[in-house]
Amino acid sequence: MSHHRTGPDDDVDLAVIGAGINGLAVARDAAARGLRVVVVDRADVGSGTSSTSSRLIHGGLKYLERYDFKLVRESIRERHLLFRNAPHLVHDYPMLIPFYAGNSRPGLLIRLGLAAFDVMAVGRGNGRSRSVSARALARRWPALSTSGLRGAALFHDAQVPWAERLCVELLLDAQRFGARVLTHTTVTDLITEGGRVAGVRALDNRSGERTEIRAAVTVNAAGPWIDDILDGQVASRRLNGGTKGSHVIVDPFPGAPGTCIFFEAAADQRPIFVFPWEGRYVLGSTDLTYEGDLDEVVASDAEIDYLLAETNRIFPSAGLTPADVLYSVAGIRPLPYTAGVSDNAKISRGHTVHSHAPAHPGLLTVIGGKLTTHRALAEDVTDEVLRVLGRAPRRCLTRERPLPGADTTDWRAFAEDFMRSSPLTKAQSRRLLDIYGVRARRVLEIAATDAALAEVVHEESGALAAEVIMAVRDEGAVTLGDILLRRTLIGLGPDMGLGAAAACAAIAVRHLGWDDERARTELADYGAELRRYRPRALTTSAAQRSSDRRIP
């Protein structure tokens, strides 16, 4: 948060550039091993690529196709650890994989891959894959296209419905170990001394205050922006070759499935998904080469048409059109640059810790990385930081450590007790558990301090005013966008929080020291932030305002 500052004379062991899931995981791991850590990000935690993923914790099935057994084993292990250490956020997620005539991957090949995966995942999954009979398909997935259907298999993977909250919990745990996180603070340049990188200079975006953070090691974990951090300061080959992935969010449609459907697109043979998510459906994703502005990544009309067409093909009764899209989400995968690649699926999804020594000692850049394997990546980075520092190896603590929302000896018993004792409705109580885990009790504590904070601020979700307070005071939110999109998650509903935004800003005025001018500015900035999602609600409200102006 921008109010957690470091001074010019305050040296640290490690400065991390980027507060996405990888940068936060590095901060958590390094701080847990006793290093003094500062993280700097020009926006909010998890506001870049981390919030634009498919929200799936992949065990790595699709990497078997490229014989990347190391990444498959790592993904299976990390998925298992997330089941154990974040049970409120990461859940078992069955997927149906239908086989159609003409698919580039025959059903027999997929079944062999599933069998191999099951062997690798023994003891680290929530069920073996199994074939699905034609009768079962007709009963459970009656709207699935039968044209050319040759069979199907049911596979168990995992989902993190709120990837944003995974980032927040990494932030909270890193802070518990003493790490400091400066959000809405832009790294203006690297501190270089005779080629050596000795930290970063940064600008607080809100106050204009400049600061210098001197660090023995600097880790560039800026995801797709890693080359931008180095540009003009450190001589380096191109490191990032990220591809664009877009998703669309729609309401339930005729024939919508009760489980995730993982199928091959007819247009380009790419595996894509249609999956239930928080009462709606996500269709995705694309995988396109992207050379445009990393700060202006928006799902194109062509991508939206592609996802709708493939969904309509697999579910003939769906009848989806662009008018059905509530909003879209687009981001850039932080993949290694690979010259001359003709198929983006062949680009490695693994990660590399790249040292810029000997030309620029003291600087490491993280290339690649996935949502699923963020913890493993952080362990590798911290191992390398300790080596660069010349310090003895220290045991990694994060394999066994639960995230703050799961900090209880018995998660299931806690959840059952909370549901029984909560004064809220069952739906509200369930939502608090799914978002905050054991920290749901903290929401109720804040709500108990003032009757106004126990009021519902967003009717559809049942979110409480107290959550706005908690977002800022306990979880480092700075802007209205931080509150709505990455803490309370009100902003990820059908209208992207536009109906609740003014009420949330008013709560901040009454309880968090905002004045009316700040509230107006935050509301305008929030509307601007939403434009990259192309929300239907924003277009509708703009059209309504235009219509109102024409009324005599």
From TrEMBL:
GO terms for molecular function: glycerol-3-phosphate dehydrogenase (quinone) activity. It comes from the Bacteria. The keyword Disulfide bond does not apply. GO terms for biological process: glycerol-3-phosphate catabolic process. Signal peptide: none annotated. Its cofactor is FAD. Pfam families: DAO (PF01266), DAO_C (PF16901). Residues 396-518 form the Alpha-glycerophosphate oxidase C-terminal domain. Transmembrane segments: none annotated. Residues 13-374 form the FAD dependent oxidoreductase domain. Keywords: FAD, Flavoprotein, Oxidoreductase. PANTHER family: GLYCEROL-3-PHOSPHATE DEHYDROGENASE (PTHR11985), GLYCEROL-3-PHOSPHATE DEHYDROGENASE, MITOCHONDRIAL (PTHR11985:SF15). Belongs to the FAD-dependent glycerol-3-phosphate dehydrogenase family. This is Glycerol-3-phosphate dehydrogenase. It comes from Streptosporangium canum.
